[in-house]
Design goal:
3-stranded mixed sheet; globular; 22 helices; mainly alpha; binds zinc ion; Neurolysin, domain 3
């Protein structure tokens, strides 16, 4: 009895300390959300300092010696519990994160947060102005800080490995290169065969569409998918993202292009996929390291599943297209469903990753991954990055950006975080989305027919049951194995692409 009471006390103390860390991190996310949505430019310098302070405090609290002692004291208790138990998972995952965090000094965490915030603000000015020179000093410092961060973790095979581990625990440069190599072998001939044909016509998407109607329509779709608006909201931003302040407040953002219907629509579906994952985490896990999605890859599997596998399917638009036509009768009233379906699935060699079609998308990701490795390895200097970017686009996609705005400045990642570990999750997510959706269809073959009548409860419920509710209890590899019954394989995803685009392009 006494031993049990001591353990309860220790576990409660651990939870209380972790909740403080979570609250500081959530407060930082509120400031970050504000910086990315409504903050006037004058707020910049103070905001960088405030974010830096909160990140440092959270890091100091999380790496306190008392947390290490509590984890030590709970080790035999953890070992007495089943692996899947919430408490065992809490101790296991907290220890894993703690052992990583104590290697990084709080002063470095503060410096990185401060630099990142300033760099982001410089990027928001530089991108519209096509001014790479304006952000180059920031990016050079980011590369320096990224290398320093990796240096706190000696013993890895590749300098990017510890940076990848932050976002995709269990993956390394070697495993990702192998997977990307196999995928590229499958994608290259598919892209070749499709782009050799007459391109599909997407003119119906390239008209004037009112901003308010675009936003309202996207929100209506994601509400039907299962995004809970009592625990979420949609705002505008330069680079769409999702953020969570608690399981009860998970927000999405989008950007609107008044002359292209796809941009706000599909980025809203994408971010809602992220948000439904966070909203679906079991309430008992809130306020702990288990209370968030388990990896960048699994997170992207959910955003890409809802955006593409569901959101660009013929089934879904059988239901939504008449509503879309009613919203934009002048633009789409005379455009048949099949023409719209083909327009939203047009495959082309293009410049912008976030707007790329499903078939070429991973080529955009792979070249960024390679550039990150070149920068970290010291084979590429930041000043040569714009030219290297153009050369890779020419090589892999047969098209090169006319400027840096749609070249090396297009993605926020390197300007709002570290270099290393930023991009692999997108392709890992695509691959996982194929595997997860195939497993969902095995369990519930009725899902496509339900989507065609605007019903998403079976799919959403299956994802919640099998993926969302677990938060970070399982690593990505464990989750894939549990959900699909096999280790991660590119095959289901390649089958999906071949099936869909084979039909669209009569391959
Ligand atoms: Zn995403």
């Amino acid at each position: 009895m006494k031993r049990r009471r001591t353990l309860d006390t220790k576990l409660n103390e651990l939870r209380a300390r972790l909740a403080e860390v979570y609250d500081l991190q959530a407060a930082a996310r509120v400031l970050d959300w504000d910086q990315n949505t409504y903050m006037p430019p004058g707020g910049g310098p103070a905001r960088a300092r405030q974010l830096s302070t909160l990140e440092r405090l959270a890091h100091e609290k999380f790496t306190a010696a008392e947390i290490g002692q509590l984890l030590d004291g709970l080790r035999s208790y953890e070992e007495s519990l089943p692996y899947e138990a919430d408490e065992a998972s809490l101790i296991r995952v907290t220890r894993r994160d703690y052992e990583r965090a104590v290697k990084v000094p709080p002063s470095f965490v503060a410096q990185l947060a401060d630099h990142t915030s300033n760099s982001y603000q410089a990027w928001t000015v530089a991108r519209p102005a096509d001014d790479f020179a304006g952000v180059r000093p920031y990016l050079e410092k980011t590369l320096d800080l990224s290398r320093q961060l990796a240096g706190f973790f000696p013993g890895y095979e590749h300098i990017a490995d510890p940076l990848i581990e932050y976002d995709d625990y269990g993956m390394t440069v070697a495993t990702i290169r192998a997977l990307f190599g196999r995928l590229r072998e499958q994608l290259a001939p598919l892209v070749q065969a499709i782009t050799a044909q007459e391109p599909l016509d997407d003119a119906c998407l390239r008209q004037e569409f009112g901003e308010a109607q675009q936003l309202a329509f996207g929100l209506e779709i994601v509400r039907r998918f299962g995004y809970d608006l009592a625990r979420g909201r949609l705002d505008k931003t330069p680079h769409p993202f999702t953020t969570e302040f608690s399981i009860g407040d998970v927000r999405i953002t989008t950007r609107v292009n008044g002359r292209h219907l796809g941009e706000a629509l599909f980025s809203t579906l994408h971010e809602a996929g992220h948000a439904m994952y966070e909203q679906g985490i079991h309430a008992d896990l809130e306020g702990t390291p288990l209370g968030g999605g388990t990896s960048a890859g699994v997170h992207e599997s959910q955003s890409r599943l809802w955006e593409n596998v569901v959101g660009r399917s013929r089934d879904v638009w059988q239901f939504f297209y008449p509503h879309l036509q009613a919203t934009f009768p002048g633009q789409l009233g005379r455009v048949p469903l099949e023409a719209f379906y083909r327009a939203i699935n047009k495959v082309e060699r293009s410049l912008i990753r976030t707007e790329a079609d499903e078939v070429t998308y991973n080529l955009h990701v792979m070249l960024r991954f390679e550039l990150e490795l070149d920068l970290l390895e010291g084979h590429l200097a930041v000043r040569d990055l714009p030219e290297a970017w153009r050369a890779r686009y020419q090589r892999d996609l047969g098209i090169a950006p006319p400027d840096d705005r749609d070249g090396v400045l297009q993605d926020v990642h390197w300007y709002d975080g570290t270099i290393g570990g930023a991009f692999q999750g997108y392709t890992l997510g695509n691959v996982m989305s194929g595997a997860f959706f195939e497993a969902a269809l095995r369990a519930h073959p009725e899902i496509p027919a339900e989507m065609a009548v605007g019903e998403f409860g079976t799919l959403h419920g299956w994802l919640k049951e099998n993926i969302y509710q677990h938060g970070s209890k399982y690593t990505a590899a464990e989750l894939v194995e549990r959900v699909t019954g096999a280790p991660l394989s590119i095959e289901p995803y390649v089958r999906y692409l071949r099936g869909k685009y084979g039909e669209l392009y009569r391959l």
